[in-house]
Amino acid sequence: MSESVAAVRVSGLEKNYRQGQHDVAALAGVDLSLCPGEFAVLAGPSGSGKTTLLNLIGALDRPSKGRVEIGGMDLASLDKTELATLRRDHIGFVFQAYNLLPVLSAVENTELVLELQGQPREQCRKRAVEVLEAVGLGQLLDRRPSELSGGQQQRVAVARAIASARTLVLADEPTANLDSRSAETLLDIMAKLNETRRLTFLFSTHDPRVVARARRVIHLEDGVISSDEVR
Fold first, then answer.
1. Quick check: 196 and 83 in contact, CB under 8 A?
2. What's this model's pTM, rounded to 2 decimal places?
3. Distance CA 62, CA 75 (A)
4. Are strands 65-70 and 39-43 parallel, antiparallel or unpaired?
5. Which residues contact 148 (CB under 8 A, 6 or more apart)?
6. What three-state secondary structure class fits 230?
7. Residue 205 and residue 50: Cα distance in Å, rounded?
8. What are the domain boundaries of the chain?
9. Distance between CA 216 and CA 34 in Å, rounded?
10. Which of 79, 106, 116, 117 sits at 20 to 30 Å (Cα–Cα) from 206?
């Protein structure tokens, strides 16, 4: 991705949901641009539109109005297959609920996306081991999710998110189910990946621990950006 191209750009973004006979606006005209390598947070109360905005940026949903670009690509111009490829190859997701496959080990969960990309089996395993070691789980490669703590499961989710050559990581309340020590460890890992690999991180969170670590804090309220602070 060229330095002149925004990692994320949204313009006039609106999202309406039908409730009974009325439309409810989750987003009411959002303009936002993220440069490559940013470590940014979407903050705000429940119902402010954080997760909706994250889902639209991640091509998990389509806006009612407005434009979303990832690395200069207009998502509206892509069909379902192209959007799936974009998510698979360019965007890493970290969810509150981990979303690991329970029957697979840590290394198998991590290498799955590489296999879906069609990479050679040996290369998939080598890369999965490398990223799990990077998040401090090199000794737990063969553990299944049920054999890992919440913090360890979330680190597997991070490893999976960065395993392929992705440039953007979207994290929705990644520390919500973690104790303070696990949360700080996870944030340390993400901050290091941001610095060393120049990954762009965008979090959605209520957690003041995450907000405190961000270098940019974007506050949402009632579906609009109320403030945007660069630190």
1. no
2. 0.88
3. 9
4. unpaired
5. 106, 140, 156
6. strand
7. 8
8. 8-230
9. 10
10. 106
Instruction: Report the C-alpha gap between 41 and 62 in whole angstroms.
Output: 21
Distance CA 52, CA 58 (A): 10
Token output for 181: 């020590």
How many contiguous H segments (helices) and E segments (strands) does the chain have? Answer: 7, 10
Q: pLDDT tens, 11-65?
A: 999 999 888 778 889 999 999 999 999 999 999 988 899 999 999 999 999 999 9
- Tell which CATH classification among 3.50.30.80, 3.20.20.70, 3.20.20.140, 3.40.50.300 matches the domain 8-230: 3.40.50.300
Q: Does pLDDT of 3 surpass 60?
A: no
pLDDT for the residue numbered 116 = 86
Q: For residue 2, name the pLDDT band (cuts at 50, 70, 90).
A: very low
What is d(CA 98, CA 88) in angstroms, rounded to the nearest whole number?
17
